[in-house]
Amino acid sequence: MRGGERLKRLVRERYGRLARGAGSCCAPTCDSRSLGYTDEELSSVPEGADLGLGCGSPLALAALKPGETVVDLGSGAGIDCFLAARMVGARGRVIGVDMTPEMVGRARASAREHGYRNVDFRLGAIEELPIEDRSADVVISNCVINLSPDKRRVFGEALRVLRPGGRLVVSDVVLARGLPQRVRESLDAYLGCVAGAALKRDYLSMIQSAGFERVRVLSERSYGACVTVGGEETTPARWARHVLSVTVGARRPGEAPRARAARLKGKIIRLQSDGPLARGKSWDERPPSRERGDGPVLRGAVEGGREVLRARGQGEGQGPRPRDEG
Ligand SMILES: C[S@@+](CC[C@H](N)C(=O)[O-])C[C@H]1O[C@@H](n2cnc3c(N)ncnc32)[C@H](O)[C@@H]1O
Questions:
Q1: What domains lie within the chain, and their CATH numbers?
Q2: Which atom of ligand 1 is closest in space to residue 98's alpha carbon?
Q3: What is the pLDDT of residues 123-182, one digit of tens each?
Q4: What confidence score (pLDDT) does residue 264 get?
Q5: Which protein residues are within 6 Å of ligand 1, measured from CB?
Q6: ω into residue 322 within 30 of 0, thus cis?
Q7: Lesser CB count within 10 Å: N end or C end of the chain?
């Protein structure tokens, strides 16, 4: 078995045990309040969805809107999926992906029992997401990518499933400096979300190289790593200060179809209210006027008008566009 596959098997075993209720969470405290979740949020999710396994609170910074489609990488028992489900509402959709069958089973049972209709939990690896191209508005993740032996591929997959203009908002463990060798080689430290963490600058550059733009650290603090290395509890070790919990935001380049349609619609409304159309003439019956802001704007708006009609399925002989088309 190759090194990466072996690590993934060990991660699956560890998180399988946690899903069955054995063992404790990987952060220094299992209390999600310390990560930024409010009491109201925590009491709104099904009991057992919060196993205290996060290292941040990506939803606090994701600005989800009603109707959006959200994908959660490494959804665990489902805490962020259930919160996101309330934020996107009945017209939206949330898909959690996790490679540990016990986690997916637990999350699906909670969804069934509590009547969540807009949440779907899928068994799969985040390096090969079981999700269509350009189908999500937002990809979130909480304390998972550090566990992946192939982080570049994870970011590539996140980009693939996002629509143009879609957002990536991930909380994760990263390092301000390299770890001592004995920590890097410790399996406990790997499973505890520390030894697999990338240097912060490498993490950000992997996101950018995957094709994202506007890569930003939205929040950062010390993770307070607490792991056992060689049978010894290591906190407060000097190296632990350099283990950080960050939330990073980025965007898939391009304009989201809905934002584009709204922008183009705005231009047409402006033309109709103060442009040539308002005076009973078609847009090309008058010479362009600088005062009216014609010229390129006018031409763009008319091009855009066709786009809007097409987007609504009213263009020349065009049927409605599938929602996931970029
Ligand atoms: C630290 S837990 C975080 C769970 C959840 N995000 C939360 O905040 O409660 C990590 C989760 O990621 C999953 N995981 C780790 N590596 C994965 C991979 N390569 N593909 C899919 N899931 C993975 C594990 O099964 C586990 O449920």
A1: 4-254 (3.40.50.150), 258-318 (no CATH)
A2: 22
A3: 999 999 999 999 999 999 999 999 999 999 999 999 999 999 999 999 999 999 999 998
A4: 74
A5: 8, 11, 15, 26, 51, 53-54, 74-76, 79, 98-100, 103, 125-127, 142-144, 147-148, 193
A6: no
A7: N
